Amino acid sequence: MKNRILFVAGLNLFFAIVELLGGLITNSLSIISDALHDFGDAIALLASYWMHKKSEQAGDPNFSYGYQRWSLLSVFLLGFFLVGGAGFIFWEAIERLQNPVETKPLAMIGFAILGLFINGFSLLKIKNSPVLHTHSHGLSQGVSHDVSHGLGSGHDLGQSLQERILSLHFIEDLLGWAIVLVGAIVIYFFRFHWLDPLLAIILSIWVIYNAVQNLRQSFRIFLQGLPEGVTLNAVQSAILKVPGILQVHHLHIWSLDGNSHILTAHLVVSPSTQMNQTSAIKNNVKKTLHHEFRIAEATLEIESEKEGCWDPHH
């Protein structure tokens, strides 16, 4: 149910506010840094819900491929939010590491246990949510029924970038709260108050690293880089195994959203190839590309071996 996403988002937003107040009360930067992360999770969930709905829109004269890439905008939103917030926490923690402030470890332990429960519950809800396991692919033209149907299941194709990022954030939160719990116990018994800003620095670096990695993947998609796990040589070899194809050139592959890929290519066939044979060849190539490389739409130009290619080389 789509209401699961809104429920988990509301739960994380409420808990982030509680965390922020708790972090201020306990003087714990590590709890405040986790509050920032939970704010990010809530924003990501709300953005994912809205942008998923937006990405379901079919293509129109302005966006002929549909609105799938809207789902990536939440990745950018969350990524920049986390990098900026974690950077602020990092510098605050550096200052507090030089001048440690006494914290309240018992309250930190209580928040850590509550944080483990809330984020563990949220992760289970997200993992089982059909909203993030169903991907609409509104290609307005040229997608056969079997291809569009086959791309309907996120589990068949693997998780989308958006889903992986949301799951990663909740896993990070679980590990982060585990670190806070251990740190609070150590502070309680040994009074090492410098440990709190040190934990905040570690968590901030962790958040920034993963956010930058996710942004890098998103930028690669927007810049039409080759999809992850796909190589030109592998695709070309698969195409050449289809009977009737002599050569492949002008092969280009990019991704709409990290899950649905687009391909264009020129296929060279024998001059004796008949029209009905070229149709069969193209259909066989499209089936191969769909099943082996998750190609949602393939635009294929058939050329005779003696014809030559007039398109520019690139």
Structural account:
This protein is mainly α. The protein has 2 domains: 220 residues, Alpha-lytic protease prodomain-like; 73 residues, 2-Layer Sandwich (Alpha-Beta Plaits), CATH 3.30.70. It has a 3-stranded mixed beta sheet, covered by helices on one side. The longest helix has 30 residues. It is elongated, with a radius of gyration of 25 Å. About 9% of the residues have low confidence.
Strand content is 5-15%
The total beta strand count reads 3
Question: Uncertain runs with pLDDT below 50, 5 residues or more?
Answer: 131-159
Q: Assign the structural class, choosing from mainly alpha, mainly beta, alpha/beta, alpha+beta, or little secondary structure.
A: mainly alpha
Task: State the helix count.
Answer: 10
| Major β-sheet annotation | 3 strands, mixed
- The CATH architecture of the largest domain would be Up-down Bundle
Q: So, the CATH homologous superfamily of the largest domain?
A: Cation efflux protein transmembrane domain
Rg over alpha carbons = 25 Å
Mean pLDDT: 80
Domain tally = 2
Strand order of the largest sheet: 1-2-3
**End-to-end Cα distance:** 46 Å
- Helix and strand pattern: HHHHHHHHHEEHE
Shape, principal axes of CA atoms = elongated
CATH domain class name of the largest domain: Mainly Alpha
CATH level-3 fold name of the largest domain: Alpha-lytic protease prodomain-like
| Helical fraction | 55-70%
